[in-house]
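Example A, followed by Example B.
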Amino acid sequence: MKNQKKEFFKREDIKTMQKDISQLREQEAEKEREKIAALKTAEETRIEREKQEKIKRGVEEKERRPPVPIPPTTLPIPPSISVETKRLKPAPSEKILIRVGIMLIIVLIFVNIFLFWNWYLREEALPGQVPPEEVLPEEVLPEEVPPEEVPPEIIIPLSLIPIEASSTLEISAPEELSTLFSQVLKTELTEGYTRILIQDIEENKILGLKEFLEGFGVKVPEGFYEKVGQDFTLFLFKQKQGNRWGLVTKITEKENLAFLLKNWEETMEQDFGNLFTATGKEGPALTPYFRAASYKGASLRYQTFSRQDLGICYSLFNDYFVFTSSWESLLKTIDQLASPPHQSQ
């Protein structure tokens, strides 16, 4: 029994010793490893320092040296290496499409160039100036022939007394009136009344009473033209002593007309001087004043210039104002106005 126990303890001691030995070995191995690690760390630190010193020295040397030209990035192909490319032939349809595409591109380029050039010329053109490309040929139009001016129709007033003949004097200026009227007074007339129409060929019209008297420079009292009409009948009357003239016009306002004419008598000879000079009057009047008479209920006023029945004779008869250069023509005219109305051209 004891031997067994001893044997057992011996075995336990052997196991314990083996463990201790293994632990010691492990501890020694651990220390060796630590030493080796420490050596490696020191060596690495030394190597690292040497590397950093080399880098610093290299940088300093580079800074001292001039810059080295950088070699081209493209490397030549070694002659031993050959690159072979194999070209593929396009099909006929592809060739047509390629050609059409190229033509379209060319056309688009030309169109863009034309549009740009056109726009540039428009911008550079002055206001109102048409670019050269847009200048159109002038259209030659046939000359328009202006329509001929149709002269206004001459309106001839109706004659206020019956007449046997008519004559028209054409004038272009009032200064011509005196000469033409004097000439027509010396012509041979038919028996009775010859109507005289005076036409202004510049204005293509027949002169009215005011224009006729102003043509001879006759001065009239204020308000006279407002009381008588402008459409008058100028006539020549053939009698034994020679041709005499007279006129008839309608009264438009009777009030104060007789009074106005009576006051006018004081200067009437001088005011009608040019007209009676064209008629043949020479020297002053035979009687320097007006006389009164009556005929067929009409009041007559007259001033004798000569014994050849030449003078100023006038009357207000019904609605008419009669003014003549002779006594005989005044009475004949009242006879015409007193008879049943006759109106003719």
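Example B, a separate protein, is given below in the same form.
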Amino acid sequence: MRSTKLLSIFTVTLLVGMMIVVGCGKKDDQAGTDDGTPGGGEIVKAPGGGDVKTPGGGDVKTPGGGDVKTPGGGDVKTPGGGDVKTPGGGDVKTPGGGDVKTPGGGAKAKKVVLSIELPKAMFKGTPVPMNEPNIAKGRAKGEVRPTIKVPDGTTNLALKKPVTSNESLPVVGDLEMVTDGDKSGEDGHNVDIGFGKKWVQIDLGLQANIYGVSVWHYHGQARAYRDVIVEVADDEDFTQNVQIVFNSDHDNSYGKGIGEEMGYVETNEGRYLYCPKGTKGRFVRLHSQGNTSNDQNHYIEVEVYGIAVK
């Protein structure tokens, strides 16, 4: 009888213990786990710099407002296309320098068509100048001007911005005409900065992501300008983060490397120059060395399309 009672007590104790284990679980499971989100805790931490990955494409979410942090510099990645979301207001942080990436299809910046206002055409056709080894042919008759798309919010950052040059006293016109918004090919609407190796430089006034540059040298006559080089840099002396975005110097006369781009015939459409992805800076410098009609260097207008870095 006594043995039966002891066995009953032992059985009851064992059952109660199992119920406590099953019902309670770990403390984190009840209060909002680090890999779940309803409780609002920080979703993932990798202080040693590891990556947070969901290769299968799942989302990394903290609806309760927690942070996604990799203090050691690891990346937060969802290669399969998932998003990194903190609907409750949490931050996605990688203080050590890691990236937040969704290569498989995360949200991308919206692209819009860039609207460029063109001046009146001053001549017909785009004949290729004779005896020039590096001039591209113009578009074929009836060929439509290509559509240019840029991130939503892109504007002409160069409009009315200050212009300097290695020719402080232009032969004709003023340097401010380079960014005054007037693209007319009529006489009196351009600045002539003399012959030889000349440049003009625009101070955007702030750091910006730059997507493209449009240039109108002189479109009152079919001509091409030689050794056109466009550079972007962080400082006015072009010693920091210098990036060449266009180079038609086919014989390396400037010593900046042999250019991969062709020269082109000027028209009222100007020339849109695509900037490589990641181009960023404050100053834009444009070089040239005469043209196929004479040795002078001219500018009617320059537009720089980008978005200020916040």
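On Example B: Residues 32-101 form one domain.
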